[in-house]
Each structure stands twice: as structure tokens, then as C-alpha cells.
Amino acid sequence: MKKAFLPLLLLAAAMFAYAPVVIAHADYESTMGLVQKVMYFHAPSGMVMLMSAVVCGVASALYLWKKDPAADRVAIAAAELTALFGLIVLVTGPLWARKAWGVWWVWEARLTMSFVGWLIAVGYLFVRKYGGPGSDKLGAALAVFCTANVPFLYCSFNIWRTMHPMTTVVPTLQPGMRGAFWFSALTLFLLYGLLLTARIHLERQRTALDQLYLAEED
Amino acid sequence: MMRRLLLVVWLLAGAVAPVLAFQPPAAQSEYVPVKDLPPVDQLPAAPLLVAAYSFIWLAAMFYLWTIWRRLGKVEAEMRALEQRRSHSNR
Lengths: 218, 90
Known about the structure:
The complex is a heterodimer.
Chain A: H1 2-25, H2 39-66, H3 69-100, H4 109-130, H5 135-154, H6 156-159, H7 175-217
Helix pairs in contact in A: 1-7, 2-3, 2-5, 2-7, 3-4, 3-7, 4-5
Chain B: H1 2-21, H2 39-42, H3 46-89
């Protein structure tokens, strides 16, 4: 993976740079026009955020169950990325909504639950940084709650009446929009995989440093 | 006679209704300047789209930079610690 990291990072950067060209050639949506093209990055970022929250929750549950430090490293890396992609969703969404709905923000179920999910991820990171001894287990429990929020967030429009477009718009995208959407999604998933790998490596190096300090004390 | 008349009126109404329903929109009687449109319709979409795309680039680059910086610090500390250990072993 170490050898493939840089070429894959360059590939992700090239795909990111080329994405506007692909998106510019995608069909215009009939009612929203140009601003609807925010969707090509907003929706995949939301997908990555939800996937990252699940990765964090599953790794945390494994850590609580098996006490495996490798699972804890994955959990903390995934939590940071949940916060990052959550922030991207929470910034790009209002930029789209300002033109499409006429307001930056509406306190409706989908948006509120996304905000709450992001707050839980940020809360996890604060607990891990400032929680002191035992914060790993407390954080892991918090991450499991963050994952429990994911199915509600995904199905929120089925449970409550919301203004947000339904998730059915993605599988029913027209051929003129489908290619651009999946190109953007692939770019973001690749970026997520690379960032997750780099962040796990950082956590592994921190563990190695702690072991060096312990060996010196002995 | 009355019944026949009502039938003719009903048939005529039935035939005319689709024609009335597919009338072209009324001709424009006056031009409306863009500034008089509702605020949402006046808002240009391009800056919002560019801002959204730029934010994603900046956020991803900034996060990658923080990982690289933190990793650099940890690895420098590891090297210093290993050097200190090798000096003390001599």
C-alpha cells in the first residue's frame, strides 16, 4: 500500500481536477439549473460521511468487544473523516439550498440529523483528545451511538416529511447525469480510502512512539 | 328538443375544453427588469457552485496537510528518541 499510495493520490488529484469538466458536460436539471450541479459533490460527500460513521462505529464496537488496538486506530481515523466529510456536506448543502430553496438552512429532519451526526463525530474527537485515561472506551461507546443515527438519517424522508430531495434521485438519475455523478462519487471514495490509510498510519506511528518512550523508561 | 339542445351544448363544451386547456401562454404585455424579480431568482448560481467546489478542494488539501505535518512531527520525535538511545548505549 505504501508504494501505491502516491500514484493513487496523484490519480485522485487528477480525477478531482477533471471532475468539473465532466460535471459541466452533465445535463442541466429542469427546475434548479446550474446550482443543481452542487449535487455531484454534495451527495457523494454525504455517502462517504455515512460510510465513515459506520466504519467508525463497527471498529469501535470491535474495540469494545475484543480490545484490539488496531480497531481503535481505525475508529479514530474514521471519526476524523466523518467530521471532515460531514463539514463538506454541511457547507455545500446550504450553498445549494440558498438558490434552490431561497434559504441557507431549514431545521427539517434530514438537515438536523446530519448536523447532529456531525456533532457526535466532533464530540468523539474532543473526548479522545481531552478525555484523559479511559477516553478510548467512552469514545467507542459514543461512536456506536453515531452509527445508530445513520439508518435514521438515511431514511429520514420516509419517516418525516422533508424538503430535502429523496435518495431515490440517485438510482433514477438520467444517463446524462449518471456518469458525472458516479465519476465524482468514485473520486471521493478514492480520496476517502487514501485519507483513511494515511490517518491510520499516523496513529500506528504514534503507538510506536509511545512504545519507544515506554522502552526508554524501562 | 330541450334535451337535444343540452346534448349539443355538452358535446361542444367537451370538444372545446381541450382546445382551451392547451392555449399558449398569454403574450408578454411588459418587460420586467431582472432587479424586480424575487431575490432568489436574481441570485447567480455560478459563484455558489464555484464556492462549493473550492471548499471541497481546500478542505481535502488542508486535512492532507495536517496529516503530513503530524506525521512529520511524530517521525522526527521517533528519530530523536532512537538517536538518544543509541548514544546512551555507547
